């Protein structure tokens, strides 16, 4: 009997270990339509605050997606806005996993992964080749920092990281494997003629160019989602 008890205890412990991480307390309610302004953040405790935000933003955060990687979404996840307060005490490391559990429990969200052929950008070398400055930092890549609309800096960054500047998936065909330090300025607004578009800025400043093409993109397809019941 003692052996059976030990096996049962280990099995229960294994089930608990496999259970998804969850927020301690969750509040979900429609946003007040009079309220202006919006924000979403995870604080040092791992608590989530989402105010006056469309649900799409929480889904893309939870699954670490960009907008073009979400498929099958009903229109209301763009138009309806919600306030979500979710408390945690064990830090932000599991915040995305907890957000996925929240979406499943309170919105009934179920999804699956697919690879779909989409219109993408192909990042290639422009005439004359790369003008990028190789980083003196030989350690791990440090990434890209957005400083505002149309301003970004790269520190020991790869060319693949430039994908975050566009509204589509980017396939890196430059053949460049180094890490680079750079500053990029462009106009994200077609009506702003004081700065070049991204398609002009990349050849001028980096010796790279974007071309439209087709390619495989990893997407999340929404199988089912409900408007939430209030607290």
Question: How does this model look, in words?
Answer:
The protein is built from five helices and twelve strands. It has helices at 2-18, 55-62, 76-79, 95-107, 198-206, and strands at 25-30, 39-42, 48-54, 70-71, 81-87, 110-125, 133-134, 143-148, 151-157, 170-172, 180-185, 208-224. Helix 2 packs across helix 4 (95-107). The chain starts with a helix and ends in a 7-residue tail after the last strand. Mean pLDDT is 88; it is low at 5-12.
Would you kindly provide a brief summary of this structure?
The chain has 231 residues and is α+β, with helices and mostly antiparallel strands.
Distance between the termini: 45 Å
Shape: elongated
Secondary structure tally, helices: 5
Helix content: 10-25%
What number of domains?
Answer: 2
Core attributes:
231 residues; alpha+beta; 2 domains; four-stranded antiparallel beta sheet; 5 helices; 36% strand
List the helices and strands and how they pair.
Blueprint: H1 2-18, E1 25-30, E2 39-42, E3 48-54, H2 55-62, E4 70-71, H3 76-79, E5 81-87, H4 95-107, E6 110-125, E7 133-134, E8 143-148, E9 151-157, E10 170-172, E11 180-185, H5 198-206, E12 208-224
Parallel strand pairs: 4-12, 6-10
Antiparallel strand pairs: 1-5, 2-3, 3-5, 6-12, 7-11, 8-9, 9-11
Helix pairs in contact: 2-4
């Amino acid at each position: 009997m003692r052996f059976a008890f030990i096996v049962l205890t280990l099995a229960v412990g294994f089930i608990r270990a496999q259970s998804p991480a969850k927020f301690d307390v969750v509040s979900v309610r429609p946003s007040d339509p009079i309220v202006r302004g919006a924000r979403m953040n995870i604080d040092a405790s791992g608590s989530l605050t989402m105010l006056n935000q469309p649900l799409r933003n929480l889904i893309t955060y939870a699954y670490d997606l960009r907008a073009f990687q979400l498929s099958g979404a009903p229109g209301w996840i763009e138009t309806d806005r919600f306030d979500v307060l979710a408390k945690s005490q064990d830090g932000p490391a599991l915040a995305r996993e907890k957000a996925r559990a929240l979406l499943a429990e309170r919105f009934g969200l179920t999804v699956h992964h697919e690879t779909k052929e989409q219109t993408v950008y192909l990042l290639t070398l422009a005439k004359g080749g790369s003008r990028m400055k190789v980083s003196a930092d030989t350690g791990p890549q440090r990434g890209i920092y957005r400083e505002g609309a149309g301003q970004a800096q790269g520190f020991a960054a790869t060319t693949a990281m430039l994908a975050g500047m566009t509204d589509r998936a980017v396939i890196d065909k430059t053949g460049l494997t180094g890490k680079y330090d750079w500053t990029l300025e462009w106009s994200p607004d077609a009506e702003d003629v004081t700065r070049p578009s991204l398609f002009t800025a990349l050849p001028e400043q980096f010796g790279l160019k974007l071309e439209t093409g087709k390619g495989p993109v990893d997407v999340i397809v929404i199988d089912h989602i409900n408007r939430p019941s209030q607290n």
